[in-house]
Protein 1
Amino acid sequence: MASSAALPNTQVAPTSNAFGFFRLIPGVLLLAAVGYAGKFIEQFIAHYGKAHHLVLPNIEYVLWAIVIGLVIANTVGVPQIFRAGVATYEFWLKAGIVLLGARFILGDILRLGGISLILVFIELALALTFMTYLGRGFKLPPKLITLLAVGSSVCGVSAIIATQGAIEADEEDSSYAIAAILALGALSLFLFPIVGHALHLSDHAYGLWTGLAVDNTAEATAAGAIYSDAAGKFAVLAKTCRNALIGFVVLGYAIYWASKGQAAEVKNKGVFLWKKFPKFVLGFLLISLLATIGFFSKPQLTALGNLSRWAFLLTFAGVGLRTNLRELGKQGVRPFIVGAVGEIAIAVITLALVVGADRIFHL
Amino acid sequence: MATLTKRRLLSLDSWAVVLSLAVALLVRAGILKTIPW
């Protein structure tokens, strides 16, 4: 789902006590400063071009925020005092998605979500099969193959972490899989918009493609928003459909490994599914339902949409600040190659699916 | 979240939902009026 952390065990969630809350403030302020700097640079370039009658490239604040974060994280580094607050970017991502529901009419969600779900099922089947055979071809350990397959087909780091616990995989395997997925997620931020523009994809088609092909929710949202605001919206919708299926995939693998006697049996499948289900999907649908039945006025919907944008602004800053390229480079080469080949194949397959769906459903 | 050993009242997802809904209600009640972008 989310996370651009270099290593999973460095993540810190917001804590409930007062000390924990105050500990978050410096990092959250850093997220806001980096995100706002990105917004400022975008606006500055636009104003400068207009004032001097120059045609300058319109680079979205999203990319600036990520690049500034990347530069800080990989040069001076993020000091300890900021780290707990920076780690809250995953919280802002989920809050942003819930509030984004205000910008969708439920009918659109059902229509586009339905199309997305069909494509997600096809993508899941193809990606899981492809990654499994690819991993076997490279003679990777079986549980590492499972982690890579889940990470690249469902939702990145969260799926890997959820699966690691369910199939009792080694920490080392999970760390390899996460590093591969994160490194490829970082690359996708720069490559997807280039391909999208080269192929003249519409906002809807591009957003759907990003939501289907980019693994982490934060990177999928960012890769969509770099293209356009509307593409960002549709990337989130498609990615949310993928996220909603995490429980079923993890349950499938848990049962498979338990049948081989290499993981504990799942006693209550309903409880297991509920625990793995991403709850922010329900919040997103609820806000969209409220927006659809007229619970909010038009100015209130605009305010909620803007709040969602601010939450995403903090997320995008966090994506850059939490990506440590040196740490990622220290992981194994073979899992990275398997991940890279798999991701390229998944990107090509999902692009073909989206182009096909665009012709049939006129997205 | 990866390794959060301390047991929390709600998951990160649930906190995001609860706080977002609370903010949405503040907007609905007119307490938060204009949010510029």
Protein 2
Amino acid sequence: MDKKKQLETLALVFGAAVVIGAIWFWSLQVGDALDTLRLAYPD
Amino acid sequence: MNESLLNLARWLDSQSWSTQLHESYYMYAWIESTHVLALMVFLGMLFVIDLRLLGVAFKTIPANTLAERLDRPLLIGFAVMFITGFILYFAIPVRTTQSIWFRIKVVLLIAAGINALLFRHKMKSASSTWAQQQRPPKSVRLAATLSLAFWAGVVMTGRAIAYDWYDCHKTLPNIMYWAAGCVDELAQAQ
Amino acid sequence: MDVLFLFEALDQSALANISKAYGGIFAVVQMFHLLAMALLGGMILVCDLRLLGLILTDISSERICKDTQKWFDAALCVMLISGIFMSSAVALKLYYNAMFWSKMSGLALGVFFVYAIRRPLLGFAHSSVNPWALKSVALSSLIIWFSVAASGRWIGFS
């Protein structure tokens, strides 16, 4: 595989990982926030 | 003038929305974070345009093309900043009204706005012969420099609002009480 | 590898003596951190939005992206230097802060991504590169840098 093809593949795989990682990370943050709110406002 | 501003601020403070925002666990934090992040969009686009107008970046791209095309993202960014900024003011109206940094920030915002409007008008009415040049004429570079200076000032004073160095409850010279609109403290000191 | 010793060293350093003692200097450094953040944001947005075909579509993406490089590098430098200065003032608190580590992971990922993948790939003629790879690079860039910025702000709230 020449350098360009390598980089292209890397870019695609990396991109997918970033999207999945970001969705995972930020949903965790939102989840934590909602949990904290539930604790703070039990009603 | 300070009296009326303070009265307005106190009235806003008494609104339930203001209290809800201020006491909310996360609302203020999210609004403030959006305000800061929108800087990347608004000020980012502005930097690109102003750096081109200074002739130090994107030199091979016509200046008017860049300014026109980036106008939409810039204005979207500005709208987000303005709306979130207003909400932030509304959440803590009294302290913000009496913040010397906020007052300077508003003056700088107005100056930046006037500078921008004057420049837009000049760009539309005059022939854009300089748009292709790598280094625009002096008056354009001056407008860009002022723009950068004003907006840098807006960011810096904006950040300073959170610091309590010159808050009304501190012991300050009378001129500062007057400038920041610390009406009660000024009355007490006299 | 536990890096606590690094943070302890930073906490005791001459830099920390300055950053902790002079709140005014800390504030000004943070203002430059914000201004550099805006510059970095503008530079990545202009290139990424062009790569996604959303703006300036009649100008070659090579030209636009190449022009952003030195400004991005400069902005990143300012952010790193100002970031280290600010960290020295609250080094141990940061060591124990989860959001700080999230931001640092994002930052490391971002720096690796820019210099190992994005720049080299964008160095080729864009018309010869797989368009999905270009879009992937643009999207990754936007997600990473806005996430780093957001987590950075959130350190202050945690």
